[in-house]
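Lecture 7 notes: from sequence to structure.

We start with a single chain of 872 residues. Read the sequence below before looking at the structure.
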Amino acid sequence: MDIITSHINADFDSLASMVAAKKLYPEAEIVFAGSQEKKLRDFIEAFKPVDIKRIKDIDMSKIKRLIIVDTKNPQRIGQFAELLSKPGVAIHIYDHHPFAKEDIRGSLEIIEEVGATATIFSEILKNKKLHPSPMEATILCLGIYEETGSLLFPSTTERDLLAAAYLIKRGANLNIVSSFLRMEMSREELGILNELVQSSKEIVSSGIRIKIAKASNEDYIGDAAHLAHRIMDMEDIDALFVLLRMEGKILIVARSRAPELNAADVMREFSGGGHSTAAAATVKEESLEIVEEKLTRVILDNVKPGKVASDIMTSPVVSINWDSAVKEIETTMTKYGVNVLPVTKDTKYAGLISREIVEKALFHGFGKSKAIDFCTTDAATVNPDTSIRQIEQMMIEHNQRFMPVIEKGKITGAITRTDLLRTLYEEFLKRRRIDKSDTREKPSIGRNIAVLLKEKFPGEIYAVLKLAGEIADQLGINAYLVGGSVRDLLRGESASGGLDIDIVVEGDGISFAKSFGRKLNAKVRTHERFGTAKIISDSLKLDVATARTEYYESPASLPTVETSSIKKDLYRRDFTINTLAVKLNLKDFGLLIDFFGGQRDLREKIIRVIHNLSFIEDPTRAFRAVRFSERFGFKLSKHTETLIKSALKLDLFSRLSGARLCEELLLAFRETEPVKTLKRLSEFGLLKVIHPNLLFNEALESTLQSMFETLAWFNLLFLEESPERGALYLTALLSTLKEEERNAAIERLSLPPGIRELITKGITQSKDTLNKLPVNDPAELYHVLNSVSLEILLFSMAQSKSKQKQKAISQYLIELRKVKPLLKGKDLQKIGIKPGPVYSKLFSELLDEKLRGRLKTREDEERFITEKYQKK
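Now the structure, written as tokens:
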């Protein structure tokens, strides 16, 4: 016998999951483990949607399989818990709550952290094409809507909405859903709500405001959860615990908005469970006062400490020595882009000096004076364990914008007003009450995307990222996932096995990479000078770098790099969309770091530079901006466009090395539609950087478009060959220039030898080849084209306006070049022909006849060779 059951005090999610499970296990019986909520009882009585057996009518000894839905807690399945240790009974579990230590384990476990178990079953039924009837769809909708607060609770996921949409398509009746989930309060409930509010007491722990409210009504058999939501809506608190004595037991309903307090962890101490934001438990044979006392204790034990200085500080910090000259300090501030510098003496912290003070000192002629003469020595400082609340208070009271973090007399980090404001704002977003009437897009600062990483990244890569977090924790450093993988993840792209994984660590990147390599049993190649390493295993490659800052000695020069913090490391990147990072340390795994508005620009599809000197420091970023714009379909911000034009006016591109310019062009040709990209570059005047006479006119557009269509045609052949796409487009681009101009452009771009030869010789060879076409004899066509490289053939095909010539090249690429004689030298020996120069002549004639289509089989070839030899 198979039994489907759920938790005691069953709700609509329980019923929905059991009804759906019945479709998967048609021979199973549905049995409630205990009581049901009143609304559920009313629904079953009104609609009698499914045959439900009473537990007393079940012979426990005959049960061979127990299907448990919407719970894994052995304390919540009543008498069925006796079967868990019985030999021969298979346990299948379907649930949306995360695993806890004492949870039931089964031979089949379908556990997904979504808003409702009904969502999981809806997906399974859809995938198996076991589509629910309209009544079954309505019941599943009731489960999803009740469990997610009509899709408004924070625990609601995208999958819940998609499941609801599927059920509505299958005929779910939302009028029935609405009538049973309407939250109108009876007079009795108003009385209980008043008692809960009046009896509530507040606890504050680590800045978290928690209320415990209790009431007693032995006759109440309604839903206590919506009473808790009413109080949460009324009160400005972080967490609420409702104790309600009813029907001879105490029901505890827990709700939490604070990430520092997990409601499910608290409820597990009372044999309950749930999610971090919503959980419940039932206690029997205890008084309200005793339960309240224990609950208070458990809550205080479960509140995680809030953030401290070491969690938000920037480290390492650029500092200056006490005897540094004021003029030197100004140079350092400009080089690193900072307005305050700590002053040290004998490696110990001595004070702070600001740009304002430096400028005034210089104005008064004290450029040679020492830092110690002008620094503030009594500025407030904190240690790594100082709480955020204390730091906030100190910075306000001292009117201090820069807070040094001191440990054993040395400066280990610094907190700016921006760091503090960002942290406080993140906490505000986590704690604020969600206004259901507010349809504006909610800010995503402080967002955790761990679930997204797990969904979109291959399992192996996700496991590697978790391992990176573990190693970082062991080494006492912070590790972050950075680069295009984060950007593309947030753009909605699914990652593939060939994903580029870039990890930045605040600390010793080389040591981290070596530890990582040992864990992965992978090779590690280090570059000590730059603090970077590459980890290579059979299945993946990872790049590891020490967090760095950089400065440019002159415009367009290569940067000088120094160890720094993640914030400074991200600041040195090109555009805001590339400054996103994900923290990998296990405590904050999945926390999205966005200092420069990258998420905003991804949403608005904008390419924006981080600072105004971006193109002065690295002019290649102008070409990169256009490349990203065309690759992603984004637009350049007006300010970014203005800065590109300013860089052109300042003639900064003349200082740019040809190799870097060439690299950007080749990337653009590989990643975008070159016709559109080059047209855009021309609009900004950037093509003239390659050569002053390079214009995007109709002739060039036609040449590039023809090259695009030729390559598209070749790709559809699905051949193993991969022509050098970038080199071909570069050849097409320069082909419109005169030979002298083209040679100047080639020198300007410092082209690699292979591409240089393709352009210089290829254009001439292409003209010569096309002049020999068309020819009617396939053998002659083969010999005309056989010595020409694939790239030049494709370029010739694109250049030609003659359909006959294009057809000839196409025939060679698709058919003729694959033609080979079936006979070998040993076959000629068997025929009686002695090896010698005659072999070459015979095989050449044999190939020509095959090319002409006159020899189809091996026998045809043998006959042809025999006749030819006999004639000779």
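The mean pLDDT is 88. Keep this in mind for problem set 3.
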